[in-house]
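Deviations from the work plan: none for this task. Representative record:
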Amino acid sequence: MGGDFAPQSTVQGAVDAVRELENSLQVLLVGDEKALRTELSQYDYPADRISIISTSKVVTMTDRPTRVLKEKRDSSLIRAVELHSEREAAAVVSAGHTGAQVAASLVMLGRIEGVRRPTIGSYFPSENGVALLVDVGANTDCKPIHMLQFAAMGSIFVEHFFERRPARVGLLNIGEEQTRGNQLAVSTYYLFERSGLNFVGNIEGRDIFKGAADVIVCDGFVGNILLKFAETIYELLLARFQGALNIGLPNEELHQALRGFQKDFDYAEHGGVPLLGVNGVSIICHGRSSARAIKNAIREAVIMVERKIPEAIREGIEQYHAGLFSRGIARLHSYQEWRERHSRESD
Amino acid sequence: MGGDFAPQSTVQGAVDAVRELENSLQVLLVGDEKALRTELSQYDYPADRISIISTSKVVTMTDRPTRVLKEKRDSSLIRAVELHSEREAAAVVSAGHTGAQVAASLVMLGRIEGVRRPTIGSYFPSENGVALLVDVGANTDCKPIHMLQFAAMGSIFVEHFFERRPARVGLLNIGEEQTRGNQLAVSTYYLFERSGLNFVGNIEGRDIFKGAADVIVCDGFVGNILLKFAETIYELLLARFQGALNIGLPNEELHQALRGFQKDFDYAEHGGVPLLGVNGVSIICHGRSSARAIKNAIREAVIMVERKIPEAIREGIEQYHAGLFSRGIARLHSYQEWRERHSRESD
């Protein structure tokens, strides 16, 4: 029931998924039974592979995440997460209220042991495909150890999901040198260098598109602003080209160019992004997700389950921590700590 | 001598300025006399309105700003700032090393009394023209009082330069509500509300283009990343459209659309941006500035001098400070202070 075009786009996305993806895939549609049956009746699909779980409520965009958990247990979103937590479903996919999905996933699936703050990354176009910018999930006022965990979870995800090994990790910053940036960036750089990550150094705003890193790490304040800004680029482009588009696109090359730009920047066309650091697979889709985006998100969920990515994160986080311990820097909580350490080492 | 296309673009920009701008304008070109004479000889212009100040050195992009001040006093950049500080010139315009220009301006022109950190803003396209994003000048790890001063200086600049009164001030943040965002954003919101600024609330990344604010305030870490990211959008667009462009643009509408996008995002086409908070007019141009950008930057300098914008900032900053004093919040240096104050007021 979640998202601007639900249940049309979610149901169509589910139908396309069971038609096009592997034969063992089963989809549980959670929500208003009547509405879902009506939608489903329009499609021809293997009926034994889609079932409906009926719920009475819907989470709206104005609901407070914490209240939803208490007062809307029988909503499509919360019930879907619950089905996953009960292992009735192997993963959950939603285009609904992101805050509520995150809150429900944290509470019902639980955090992976050792993970301080689960994180959401987002894909940015880059010269060799995409880069994962992490955190874009509003984890503000971060410490270096949080940034390290974002980097570790992002790396493990990219290595398993895109099979790019080892994932190259960059730190979003305002200059190339290790002493540039704000206090968080400077102390995070120090930690990344000693972390066992495949750290390629600072990535400036101008380098995001250039493909120098597979995972670009920033705190959730910066990441969220950058993501929401990037999401409007395509709208601005469309507005500018409206006149030209109205009279029809005169040739195929131009059509391809605009389509390429859409592929880069129209986040509603993408699949979803995973919530990393929880015990399970919770895929967060854009509110404006099309059926195509929903189908892609379901495909992502399948890959994450098959490749056991949450388990890989559990093991990986432990290894990164052990690596830091062995270097005597289990903690690095502040700029002050970095300064003390840095001045000791420089003596 | 500064910038990727100097001295060609700087000399041509100066020639165009004295040709096209008002009759009283005189330009002093500072740099290698021979190179400047050779460039100038190609143009037809009122010879009594351009003079050359000969210097022996040039600041390169790898120079350290602080060393430049000591070791390259006879460089074009430092001498130009010095001419302004000696009141031989009413303003200084450069497309050279930004860090060195800022350092020289701070030291030789000095800060306006009461200004903690001078700031650089940059223009972002918006539905009603442009919005000034401030700070983009790498003032990292800011306190609320710094943000207030960025807002005040940005407002005064916009009000005098664009004659938009009162300037609408927004705070770049990750949500609409006043309690959203990181600790800096939350405590800055509190201060803005009580500041006498024409504060319109939080501006999210998705709203930057929408024209809801004339001045959008953020710390220099966020601002610099956002600016450098935005600067690459036009490059990405051009790369995408290269195929279509190579075979020629088939119609005028499309040409206009691309040109509009260029106008929005090609920062090398803009004039410069002022360093706000120093005793003088120091205009910072993009390294890739065209002759047109240089001419526009000279025009900006003329307007700033004629409208006495540095003096307006001096008076305005005092007024904002007095306003805060009268509300009993002369200082707000940290999130902790905000919390204490906020909980007292909520009692």
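The two ends of chain B are 61 Å apart (CA to CA).
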